[in-house]
Write a structure and sequence with these properties.
This protein is α/β, with parallel strands linked by helices. Helix content is 46%, strand content 11%.
């Protein structure tokens, strides 16, 4: 950890960068700018403008309701998943990269505010985090104060009794803006809440599903204005099928449909599967299940509407204009390599993989089922991090205060650094994509059956459920009894004392 003086300086510099995205891009580009360096007078003028902007923005900063607390230099230890080179947890030093620096300064601000010291976190793969926390809980060792681990693994661990009911932890105010309303409504049952997502979890932003398209190819082919389709509520599965159904060009001229050719659409190598499949289904207005007031459940995937949506996706994935793309684990690469015009992608895929793409691409929400659907919708991949607290911790008040304050700070500084600066400034290729990204973020939903799906729920049945034409109803029936038992066990954890 750096000294307090250096932390304060770094914190101030990051505020300057966040207040003015132009300064951020200049500082990160280093050399190579064609513009002449400003004189000292110009710098002074720029700082005055920044000060004015910062003063204006300060009036809009959201504040938490955590009181003044002093934890006497207590050590705070966090454990969590680190993947794709990104961590929600901590950064080791100021690097000039705005997301890294915002996280660094957030933790520095917490240390100063609460008189605590962050120990080096356990930042590794989700299985190691899970096994490590489980071992400490079983040993009665309060080694970790906060856990930010993968959603799928966390929900499984929570149902095995490793985590506290967050509703009983002091200072957590789930009415605040940094907690997504759709998650609050779905994650709690019988006043019990074992996991939560807040703006502390940057991966909840980054792993949100969207649809990307190669704008250069779309323009060359005369494809209609897709952004207008979205605005008019007409961006649907049927429209995606219509646009992509006949797009096939034998680019390499070998007479074989392969990855040297061009197609309209790809879902990747597995079609409808896991979290990507769940995102497309939720985007079509469906949900896994409904929990009734008496804690009985209804499997919504058994409806006629779900069967119709399944047939649409089967047709989309198997039409002449679609391909199975095996060239990379991310379907995004099919768009970048001009193999497919359209492909589903998570927002952090653009940040991590498309920043150096020389072409032009656009971002869209996932398609609706039909124009009558009230709004667009999407899911965050179950690989994202969520918040949980071990049943054995040193100080529940300290843990609650830090989660709340860190979440509020992230709303004001870290999320804007990721969305406004990194995604929408560095990655987006047009103003319309910025607008579309916001629609995507505003349309995130989750329900109980997805949040607590673990490794056994409906998410992991989708690949088989949606695989064959005309077989949806029979496959659903064959899986329903197992899913009944799976979700009954989940619900039981919430209704038993």
């Amino acid at each position: 950890m750096k000294t307090t003086a250096l932390r304060k300086l770094s914190f101030f510099l990051t505020l300057l960068m966040l207040a003015n995205p132009v300064l951020t891009s200049c500082s990160e580009s280093g050399t190579g700018s064609d513009e002449t360096a400003p004189t000292s007078g110009e710098v002074s003028s720029e700082v005055e403008v920044i000060a004015e902007e910062t003063e204006t923005e300060t009036e809009e900063v959201l504040t938490d309701n955590v009181p003044e607390l002093d934890f006497g230099g207590e050590t705070v230890t966090i454990a969590g998943q680190k993947s794709d080179g990104c961590s929600d947890i901590a950064s080791e030093e100021i690097t000039g990269e705005v997301v890294n620096d915002a996280i660094y300064n957030r933790n520095a601000a917490m240390e100063e505010r609460f008189n605590v010291s962050f120990a080096e976190p356990l930042a590794t793969d989700y299985t190691t985090v899970s096994n490590t926390v489980k071992a400490t809980v079983q040993a009665g060792d309060p080694a970790y104060d906060i856990i930010l681990n993968q959603l799928a693994q966390t929900s499984s661990d929570a149902l095995n009794g490793n985590y506290m009911n967050l509703s009983e932890i002091p200072h957590l105010d789930f009415t605040q803006r940094w907690y997504p309303a759709s998650v609050i409504e779905s994650a709690s049952l019988n006043d019990k809440l074992y996991l939560m997502v807040s703006d502390l979890c940057i991966s909840y932003v980054g792993q949100t599903w969207s649809m990307c398209f190669n704008k250069d190819i779309a323009t060359d082919m005369g494809i209609e204005n897709l952004y207008d389709l979205v605005r008019e509520g007409e961006w649907t599965i049927d429209k995606l099928k219509e646009i992509t159904s006949e797009i096939y060009i034998d680019i390499n001229g070998d007479g074989v449909r392969d990855e040297g050719d061009r197609y309209g659409f790809t879902m990747g190598s597995n079609g409808i599967d896991g979290c990507k499949g769940a995102a497309l289904i939720y985007g079509a207005g469906l949900r896994f299940m409904k929990i009734n007031e008496d804690y009985t459940m209804e499997h919504l995937l058994g409806s006629e509407e779900a069967q119709k949506v399944a047939e649409k996706f089967y047709e989309l994935n198997n039409q002449a204009g679609s391909t199975v793309f095996n060239g990379h684990s991310y379907p995004l690469y099919a768009m970048m390599q001009q193999i497919a015009v359209f492909a589903p992608a998570q927002l952090h895929h653009y940040y991590g993989h498309a920043r150096d793409f020389e072409g032009t691409f656009g971002v869209l929400p996932l398609p609706k089922n039909d124009p009558a659907q009230e709004s667009y919708a999407t899911l965050c991949d179950a690989g994202c991090n969520c918040i949980s607290v071990p049943v054995v911790i040193k100080n529940p008040e300290m843990t609650g205060a830090l989660i709340e304050a860190m979440s509020a700070y992230s709303t004001n500084n870290v999320v804007p650094a990721f969305v406004d600066v990194s995604l929408q400034t560095k990655v987006a290729r047009d103003e319309e994509s910025v607008e579309m990204m916001q629609i995507v973020l505003d349309s995130r939903v989750m329900d109980f059956a997805y949040l607590y799906c673990g490794w056994n729920g409906w998410t992991w049945q989708l690949s088989d459920l949606f695989k064959d034409p005309g077989a949806y109803a029979s496959k659903f029936t064959s899986k329903q009894k197992v899913m009944d038992k799976t979700y009954e066990r989940m619900i039981k954890n919430f209704i038993e004392e």
